[in-house]
Amino acid sequence: MARGTPVTERSPSTAELGHTVGAVVVDRRGASMPGVRPRLRRLRDLGVRVLVGRPLPAALEQLDRSGIAGELVLVIGDEPPDTARALLDEQIARVLARRVPGICVDPRWAIVEHGVDPARHRVTESLFTVVSGGIGIRGSVEEAPDFGDPLVLATGIYVGTGPDDGLLPGPDVIDVDLTPPVIADRRILDLRTGTLHRTEVGADRPVRSMRFASIAQPGLLAVRVEAADDRIGPCLPTGGEGWETVGTAYGGIGALAHEETHQDSGIRSVERLVAVDSCRSSPPGPRIARRRLDRATSTGFDHLLAQQRAAWARRWERVTVTVPDDPETELGLRFALFHLWQLTDDHDELAVGARGLTGNGYAGHVFWDADVFVLPALVTIDPRAAAAMVAYRVHRLPTARARARAEGREGARFPWESAYDGRDVTPDEGYVGGEEVPILTGTLEEHITADVAWAAVHHAAWTRPSGRLTGAESTLVRETAAYWASRLALDPDGSAHIRDVIGPDEYHERVDDNAFTNAMARWNLRTAARQWRVGAATRREWLRLADALVDGYDADAGIHEQFAGYSGLEPLLVRDLAEPPVAADVLAGRARVARSQVIKQPDVLMIHHLLPGEAAPGSLARDLAFYAPRTAHGSSLSPAAMALLHARAGQADAALELLRISLRIDLDDLGGTTSAGVHVGACGGAWQTIVRGFLGAAVRSGRLELDPVLPSAWGSLEVRFRCLGRDVRVRADRETVAVDASGPLTVRPRVAGAASWSTSSRVRFSGGPGA
Ligand code: IFM
């Protein structure tokens, strides 16, 4: 909070008392001082929140709920009238001169980066990406140095339809000429408000900037930059506009920019509002962008900023996590949640690439990361966005059908890597540790077909009390089942097999009877067989085939064998190679790892995660004990998935350790690949570790089940999320679990002796957490 400090030597018009605040709180005495009220009115008109005469704690709480906290609040109370007026004049002058607004640097909400480090720059560009309405702007600095990779990307807009055709780079919208360029700076991503700030360090009149992608006016980017007069060059004449478009026959991105320049006391500010639009069939015309820009210019930057703060505050009010004893983990989780929120938009379908819109890693292709890692997270954050993810798959069912037919199979086969039209865009070749290798996943990583069906069913369970699928969704589940029925092979002894596949553990290729693939296919067949649209004969056949599918469970050992012959491989443990996470294939060579039991990421264990009912009872702890020391975490998806399962097995401390690794994947660039974008699958996995892992949240038959466990380092955990159309808040500490919901919701806590129950509007339950 900024408290007024006396201005004695400088006139208000030139005073620099700090920064532009977001709100002014004045007590009654202050408001009655001569000349104060008109100034407050002026500020209010300019977009600054003004609260008069409210008790300070209540005023601060109200502002906090609108995303205005700490040093963004100017409190006027016991100053002499001259000082109060000077402070208000100074704020009016700053807003009129379009100075860059201030920021509240709250360590619970701020990701801070110091210095301009060319090696790290592309990483921070990814981390600091801001997105709204399906348009993402990487966090590049304004002067666009050579070592950066500034990109504007749009959901589902690709350069073409081939394997190498990544997301289409849109027009550059943030470049500002700064001469000389900034040598050292401090950049802050404020997760609370979705704003990115920059301040040059060590300069008399530092370059400062702020940008945000407006979530109140989707598709709108707002940028302000200030610097000494002679350092900053505008792109457009003041009040000028520029329209730029890029695209192909498969779609395009257009940007309409409006720029204003202001000069005051040797400081020039450039303010740019940019309306961005995209189209999936051709480069867009300016019509929609024009409408967006007109609305934005009539709103004005400062009001847009107030909207932005309030809109993000509403998001965090509904969905958040609070871990009072572990601020670092809490911040990492909020960062993950921030990037998950940023995936959402209002389109009818949502293609979530492996890096979202934060970079062009994996060419923006959609993997199982979307269906199994992001969607279950998004369904608890923004169910409409999760529905759009299902729609993305449903719309590509005809392509999946055509592929199955082309391969002589029934039903529909979904591609391992998907992009524009749902054809498989997995490249044929890639590099592992500098060595060129064939990529077989496009042909062999078939579990994706069941993963897609699983996601549709999971989404329905979390959003509809009946759990029922729509017609299109049940067609998808039926056709994926038909694929498996035609894909599996029956042996003379009656057992069914799926041969020659790659499971989630991509270190072992061309394996037979991958337990995860088989369990998913079995679930797909059984789930489809339960649908009324399936005839009696087909139902019987699918159930028979499902029962006949082997799943690698070895009753003597009490664990699932990952694939036929796995147990005969060299019993190498990861720690024999290096401390995980490690790319074991790069370190030890692909051939060596393929001959060993070292695996890239949870594989058998994913059965316990996605289909706990399909795993042999009691086998989770034994599978975990066996596979955890063999898992290299060579995929960004791995630590969170394993964390979740440790939590489910009651090993909450081990879970927390892995969760912390998962949260560092991007923030510390653990794998050296964040420059190509944030791993949104890992973000989804981290959030699932909280909701599914630690809270034990699951939806069965229209009821929310809870089974919390807490690591020993946490005294309590509060999580807010969406479930079955309700806003749910769960607070767990060592003695109690309290649940509040925004409407009727049946909650079933799994605590010994507690009954399941429901209430008409609000649930509240107290019982002890499991660990
Ligand atoms: O989908 C993942 C896969 O599981 C491991 N390699 C990277 C892919 C994209 O994130």
Please characterize this protein's 3D structure:
This protein is an alpha+beta fold. The protein has 23 helices and 31 strands. The chain has an eight-stranded antiparallel β-sheet with strand order 5-10-11-12-13-17-16-15. A hairpin with a 2-residue loop joins strand 27 and strand 28. The two termini are 39 Å apart. The chain binds 5-hydroxymethyl-3,4-dihydroxypiperidine (IFM).
Question: What overall form do the CA principal axes indicate?
Answer: globular
Query: Which ligands, by name, code or SMILES, are bound?
Result: 5-hydroxymethyl-3,4-dihydroxypiperidine
The number of distinct helices, counting runs of at least 4 residues, comes to: 23
The poorly predicted ranges are 3-16, 752-762
Mean pLDDT rating: 93
Instruction: Kindly report how far apart the N and C termini lie.
Output: 39 Å
Which value, in Å, is the CA radius of gyration?
A: 28 Å
Oligomer: single chain
DSSP summary, beta strand count: 31
Name the helicity range: 25-40%
